[in-house]
């Protein structure tokens, strides 16, 4: 197993035209692969505007139009592709905020349905209720690559430290969170949460946001980021459309864990975090 590989995070400018979003994403995936990326992460709701009114309009089955494009893009670029998220409709008509992951052969490796729905109310600033149209997922999502094991969450999932701890216990060395924080929570918590999850679990953390669009009904913060197991920001975007890169060094991760051996020092006789339902 290689101890170092290149990660690319795509900060896509999302429009109301699904076909344009898919085409642009495919082009940026190809660009990332040409620059040596082995794993590419797209943003939350990369194929549609983010909003409870948009989810039913843009929802698809998996497999469907968007997942087919992602499958083809992963195969043609020979990368592991964390497909951001799309509004998914299941056979029973329920809607989910879902991240499909594809292998370099184009196969669907897993799909992560957002576990924690974004229901918040900050008076005078922002109110948003994903639960008005979406249902929560009920499974943890981990996949293996030749480089490392990866845990997947979506946006609001990052606020729940227990999920990251469970992924770490399962052997994950990289956690990826497609996410669309906003202009209130973004500047306050976006980087803080990523650094916290990275330091607590001594893992790499990568987040992929849509690019900021001041004309959208929901304005994303942007600033897609990669954080090291030491809690250092090693790559970060601004607010515009871009691709950011980071070299994930698993030997460095092992060194951090050896120097500060918190895993061995945990007092499991006093406390523990366990999954109620394995996923």
Automatic annotation (TrEMBL):
UniProt keyword terms in alphabetical order: Hydrolase
Known catalytic reactions: 2-oxoglutaramate + H2O = 2-oxoglutarate + NH4(+); 2-oxosuccinamate + H2O = oxaloacetate + NH4(+)
Pfam family, one: CN_hydrolase
Recorded GO MF terms: omega-amidase activity
GO BP annotations, alphabetical order: asparagine metabolic process; glutamine metabolic process; oxaloacetate metabolic process
Domain of life: Eukaryota
GO cellular-component term (any): mitochondrion
Start and end residues of each CN hydrolase domain: 5-250
Enzyme class: hydrolase
EC id: 3.5.1.3
UniProt family annotation: Belongs to the carbon-nitrogen hydrolase superfamily. NIT1/NIT2 family.
Protein name: omega-amidase
Higher taxonomy: Eukaryota, Metazoa, Chordata, Craniata, Vertebrata
